[in-house]
Write a structure and sequence with these properties.
By secondary structure, the chain is mostly helical. It has eight helices and no strands.
């Protein structure tokens, strides 16, 4: 039996990977990492802003109205003193300043709601949605002018939706952007590599900005007060309640003083 002759198989040729394709793949990995980091940082900032806003509203709900009443009483006291001493220029000036301060406090406080504001508490799903929106939609991640304008509007809507705890709105924002023409990428490794490099640069720049904003928020007086309140609560103290009690006592003293002044005028 004749031996079976095996024909030589053609050598498989490997398609060489172009240097620009290798660099593009590496840069895409770098872009994904920096955008993930940026989204996390944006989430921390958005969460801190929302928590501070909720804390401020609750603080003003309990304390703001009392300070408004106290400043109004002090203004009436100063006006009674000025009325009884028409030739006293200092008393007249003090009355004008007290009235101005009372008006300013009333304007700043605004209308107080009867219902106690609820503290802000973001769900895990809300955070996940916001993180994804920030990663895909943030305006600092594009160099196209029209795309940037659209992203700015969407990101503003996303911030509002996050503070309101509106998961459906965040989902809608993300879906609408993903389906928009602006999300379509161009073809070719060369141009895409340039776009990716610029996106990385923009993301790093925004990351620096948001980290600076976070540090500013952490140093602000409102955050320091919130930290005091939280720390005191761990030891069974209610700082806001203590402040309310202190202001209530000042209000009571101011009322007694005003009554005494008005009684003297009547006598």
């Amino acid at each position: 039996m004749a031996p079976k002759i095996t024909e030589p198989q053609p050598l498989q040729t490997l398609t060489p990977v172009k240097p620009e394709d290798q660099e593009l793949a590496r840069k895409r990995e770098e872009q994904a990492a920096i955008e993930t980091e940026l989204a996390e940082c944006e989430l921390r900032a958005a969460n801190l802003r929302a928590e501070l806003g909720a804390f401020e509203r609750r603080y003003l709900h309990f304390v703001g109205a009392r300070y408004t009443e106290l400043d109004e009483l002090n203004a009436q006291i100063a006006e009674e003193i000025a009325k009884s001493q028409p030739d006293n220029l200092r008393a007249q000036q003090a009355a004008r300043e007290a009235r101005s301060r009372a008006s300013s406090t009333k304007t700043s406080a605004g209308e107080q709601t009867e219902q106690e504001p609820k503290p802000f508490q973001a769900s895990l799903e809300l955070k996940r949605l916001y993180r994804e929106v920030a990663r895909r939609v943030h305006p600092d991640l594009t160099s196209d002018r029209d795309d940037r304008a659209k992203r700015q509007q969407l990101m503003a809507e996303a911030n509002q939706a996050y503070e309101q705890g509106n998961e459906a709105e965040l989902t809608k924002i993300l879906t609408e952007y993903e389906c928009s023409p602006e999300a379509v990428k161009g073809e070719g490794a060369g141009p895409e590599l340039i776009r990716v490099i610029r996106r990385i640069s923009q993301a790093r720049s925004r990351l620096s900005e948001i980290e600076a904003e976070l540090q500013e928020l952490l140093r602000c007086d409102l955050h320091q007060l919130r930290m005091r309140v939280n720390e005191a609560e761990k030891h069974g103290r209610d700082v806001v309640k203590e402040i309310v009690a202190k202001v209530d006592e000042q209000v009571a003293q101011a009322k007694r003083r005003l009554d005494n002044l008005q009684q003297r005028v009547q006598v």
